[in-house]
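Case study B.
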Amino acid sequence: MKTIILSAEDIRTIVTAVGLDTLMDQTIDALYTTCRHYDDDKYTIPIRRGFNYHHPKPGLLEWMPAMQNGSTASLKIVGYHPANPVEHHLPTILSVGLTFNTETGHFIGLLDATFPTALRTGAASAVASRILAAADTKVLGLIGAGAQAISQLHGLSRVFEFEDVLLYDIDRSVSNSFRSRAAGLQLHGARIKQASLVDVCRNADILCTVTSVATGKGPVFQDVDLKPGLHVNAVGSDFPGKIEVPRSLLKRSFVCPDFREQAIHEGDCQQLSASDIGPNLIELVKSADTYTEKRDDTTVFDSTGWALEDHILIEILMHHAHALGCGTPVQVESIADDPRDPYSFLSTEDRFNIKAL
Amino acid sequence: MKTIILSAEDIRTIVTAVGLDTLMDQTIDALYTTCRHYDDDKYTIPIRRGFNYHHPKPGLLEWMPAMQNGSTASLKIVGYHPANPVEHHLPTILSVGLTFNTETGHFIGLLDATFPTALRTGAASAVASRILAAADTKVLGLIGAGAQAISQLHGLSRVFEFEDVLLYDIDRSVSNSFRSRAAGLQLHGARIKQASLVDVCRNADILCTVTSVATGKGPVFQDVDLKPGLHVNAVGSDFPGKIEVPRSLLKRSFVCPDFREQAIHEGDCQQLSASDIGPNLIELVKSADTYTEKRDDTTVFDSTGWALEDHILIEILMHHAHALGCGTPVQVESIADDPRDPYSFLSTEDRFNIKAL
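Model:
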């Protein structure tokens, strides 16, 4: 009973075969459908927990479990280390995903979750924005132009045809490289432009905050001169004390968290009392027809990153791997002839060699 | 930056090269030394959490994190599915371990933790028993003769020279096969005998409870006719409502949990109030000289299974793997030229192929 190991190369094979856009579309559709038919009896999703530390560098290592009851459980382990790009030439977010059979506990598969984390975060914003953003959305504003900005643009461009993508990053070198990083995306002629923070905010129909702002240093923009029907995807706030959106904007907006308990703890919802917070993503999607009425108001999707999103994409990728014959089966678990002998994976000869040592 | 995947075969190579007994001795020594020098600033070990379910079969899937601050973090995922041996010819406990670099979040290694879980549980009982059990211990009693009984015998036999090993299991076929399963262990002539539950309890100097008793169905023996200086290793109680040791025995004994918060929640300490519970394993080892005075009393080590034990053994096994050149380096994380582009693991050609689809 082996474990399927999907290497980065296997993920590349899958994405190339399936298509990056198709994979994004499948993730958006699966998240929407799963939310639409969500039932507390079908899934068990605890709040994520983690290690948060300041040495040797500021960092966070979290585990995000999700179980489809009676079927599979997934666990994503995700590191957030903002010094990575500059000091190690590594992504801020590194992540791996695991999936288990809940009938036996068997470890079914292991895969990269660095790329899937970006993809599913873009997909989540797409699902929320399709309901809450103005139908005639033409301008996307990005505050922060790093890795997660790419997949925000990707996810949203599958739902909206942007004319302009305006971006601002406190690090000019990051905004300078954005256009070349976005070159692989199908943007239907959208113009990518660097702009001042003020101009990004003033012109955006949809605004995504995708920053590594330090705790206590937010918000990352001001509640001044915004469009009346602005929709914000607040993506970077995922840590106690870390906020991106001005409180006054939150207070006067319709706020939808991905996962309420988590958003209250580490999202922009930290700034709100319970009565200020609207439906979570499940409720939003379940009553999508009702909530489209909110498009004329300012709306905020508080995206802290939700284990259900990871679970869905892990399932999609494992499905494609199976269909394409990707991945390496490895006997990871030490299982041998006798399930009641934890040493039975050793041959008799090995044991007697050991005895003789 | 690759991840080392240790297959079951790699673990077998390590155990064969190092020696099963040497590995047990190293684990006992490392656990003892780590406890002896333990400092809250050195480690962060939260209580484990998990999914507990009844469908499709009763089961438990838990994650056990531990971090050596400023160095590595480990995560063990462990499944407990008591129907496995009979219905799937699989061990009750299946497990995998992962280790991460906390400077970057890089996923360093993956390995089986099924065998290590058994080994470290035996090692923990050995550490506690060396302090709390009578020095002239001659008789080991085992209630439950499954996989964990093997490693209890193994760990304890590295510290004590038993004359008799008495065993009882409610399933006669399990006790019948115990002797052949234990054949690989060096027992210095100890006689392995099946006995009635009453005789196991009456004659034991050290008693290990290693059962899959159902919640609400314990204890698994009676507080009758026990030796005055009996030491109990209560190993099987690791679930809310699951208990093995009679409350009256706990009440009159010196009780040492491996990890207090966890033992109160899911160990035999569930039956006690806080004031009835003695030092945890760290405190026991730190003041080992003082606590050997308790050898004349009845003593209980409430072993729920502790992430520090797993962390230590994962480190030992990764160290041996490195020294022996075992394991397969796999590029799991999708990392490419640009850490700010989550899609940069795709070649330019792949992206343009995708565009062309």
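The CA atoms of residues 59 and 229 of chain B lie 36 Å apart. The remaining cases will be described in the next quarterly update.
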